FAD/NAD(P)-binding domain-containing protein (Xylaria flabelliformis), 426 residues
Amino acid sequence: MPQRIVVVGSGFAGFWAALSARRLISLTPEKGIADAAKIEVVVIAPDANLVMRPRLYEPNPANMSEPVDDIYRACGVSFVHGIVDTIHAAEHKIEMVDRAGVRSTMPYDKLVLAAGSRVVHPAIPGLDNYAFSVDQMEDAVKLDRHLHSLASRPSSKARNTIVVCGGGFTGIEVAAELPGRLRTILGKDADFRVITVDRSQDIGPDLGAGPRPHIVKALNDLGVETRLGTAVVGLDAEGVTLSSGERIETLTAIWTAGVVATPLTKQVSNERDGFGRLHVDQDLRVPTASDVFAAGDAASAAADDSGHCAKMSCQHAGPLGKIAGYNAAADLLKVPTIPYSQPVYRVCLDLGAAGAVVGEGWEVNVQHTGFKAKPIKQFINRTLIYPPKAIAAEAFAAADPAFDGSDPAVNHPTLSKFLQEYGISI
């Protein structure tokens, strides 16, 4: 009976985990391992599309996904439409519901949990009923439709005011992009306000001090207002209320404040971090469930030997997926595993019509700003994060854990030429 690797999730981590596992399996016959053909790799997800989640703050989010079923077929990965809602780690099986609502069980020999994360919804009155987000594809499409509907409404303070709840990475990108989107929808001379609210005294608190002056200048240049040191305490159909007592009239409140890992992590282990991510060892294995690996936003993994942890971003999701998939297959093939390490870290923050900020290192030392940084961000969003062609050789080459596609400065075949056109070195 064939052995089975089940990958839960088809985001960046799950996609690369499946391809990395199949790559190793495809290589093993050359080493004389006869059991390689008896290992199947199965991905379970609601649909076979790789959603460009890092781009969902942009216009036209309905186009921000790429079908990957052809790639799976070319590489010998089986795809199953379904939602996994139960993991029985001790019994080595999962339970799922398919698109017809039919429940079934699937056994596994190795499991890679890569089911991502969701935006946190704290118990704030009105949040669930009145807030928009750009967290998932359906959320971003709903917001996009709402923004376009504003043009058909009479001008008013509430119609013309957008409140971005959260001043972190996502909140900044949303707020910086909104002026351009609103001018396209309401007219270039439209009178509108974009206001960002965050409980921190500083914008982008997790980004550090380095990029902050550039972020503040960009938001000021774009006309984006900030309310810092205050929190949203209530939302209704016509506005938001802040902890400072201020009420802002708006028809559009966009919630971006924090994410939490898939609740499936709770079914695997109690050893989780503050984001709900599973603590894993260097092989990305869950210590209390040795046949379960975690990747992407489900994994709390040490990125280096200096105490830095992988971020909940596609920059880390891809490499985490490649290592988790490789190691799940390596276990079954009885070949050495590869420890996860990702010491290189970069921040590339979109600032809409004001350009971007590119910084290097965990302290985010700024390298490029404004329109010099913008082409780098565009390259990442429009090229680097997209899947390879449905050709097994190309897909397997990209899935090699030694290929660090998360870092545009390291061995990416086309970035240097792309940046030379803009006179940029990195």
